[in-house]
Amino acid sequence: MRSNSFSALKQMKRRDFLKFCGATAAMMGLSELYVPKIAEAVTSAAKRPSVVWLTLSCDSGCTEMFIKARNPGPAELILDVLSVDYDDTIMAAAGDQAEENLKNAVGAGGFILVIEGGMPSKHGFGMIGGRDMLDIVKEAAPKAAAVVALGSCATNGGIQGARPNPSGLMSVSEVLSPMGIKNVNLPGCPADPKLLVGVVLNYLLFKKLPDLDDQGRPRMFYSKTVHEQCERRAYFEAGRFVEAFGTPEMEKGYCLYKMGCKGPLTYAPCPAIRYNNNVSWCIQAGAPCIGCLDMKWPDNFYPFYAQLKDIRFDGTTTTADNVGKALGAVTVAGIAVHATVTAVKSKSGRKGENN
Questions:
Q1: What's the pLDDT tens digit per position in 185-231?
Q2: FRET partner for 287 with CA separation of 20 to 30 A, picked from 14, 80, 171, 243?
Q3: CATH fold label, 14-221
Q4: What is the rounded CA–CA span in Å between residue 321 and residue 104?
Q5: Could you tell me if 118 and 112 are in contact, meaning their C-beta atoms sit under 8 angstroms apart?
Q6: CATH 4.10.480.10: does it fit domain 224-355?
Q7: Half-sphere exposure (CA, 13 Å, Cβ side) for 98?
Q8: In angstroms, rounded to a whole number, what is the distance separating the alpha carbons of residues 300 and 19?
């Protein structure tokens, strides 16, 4: 799966290529000055790290996102941004040949190990080529230059790791931490491939993995809540909420907090990166956030459409019913203060003129 002598990204229209580099810089929280450096990193085949992609206990949703990605598309991702040397879902090889490819890739070492899905800790619940998924990861991870847990199934077990978790499914961190190996967590159901590209480009640009929070997530992606970035936040602050689906308030784009939106609790970049070729995301499409990019999803977020009891806002705890009143009072007080200060300055100015 390595790139040929031509670069798929280089064959993109220059405007589209620079747009991709600029969008990537913005997503990573970098200034426009980094656009030329990102362009150089992307188009330099010699610097592309080898990627081994293991698809374990999951629904392959992250792979689906990967192969359906646009700007860059799957061809650019595979041929230029990533040198995918093993991925049993998209590779041509199968059976013994595929297992031989995995053996060779792992044996070479120095690769980026992308793990999609969790690992059943009970023998026989998850196997590939007659081997337990858990054993495959324990063999490959120590030889990797970096390990990325991609998607909720890998970062916290996802749906199949939810209570009562009959297979004893473990997340990547639960498996690797006792081995002294630190991994990057990119939670999401599914995780957007742009997040993976951002991690890899950070590795290429700065020769290191991005700065991580205490849960192993890149701060550049997971430092703000969905609520902080939400396009409907103004309606929240005005106390205008959707009370039922299919209502005029729904059509007007009012806040979905009362419909069970978990945006105030979920640290995720969804409003910024969007999905479906950057066209939309859940809340824009009219669905409340269910917290699927949070590390504690789904156990701590169901029932998905149950309203949160309260919310922390500007250091205080309030409810949806009171938030409009509270913020309205703050706004009125702010206007009053501003008017008073303006009047004082005006009087001072006139006194100065008279003197």
A1: 999 999 988 888 888 888 878 888 899 999 999 999 999 999 999 99
A2: 171
A3: Rossmann fold (3.40.50)
A4: 60
A5: no
A6: yes
A7: 15
A8: 38
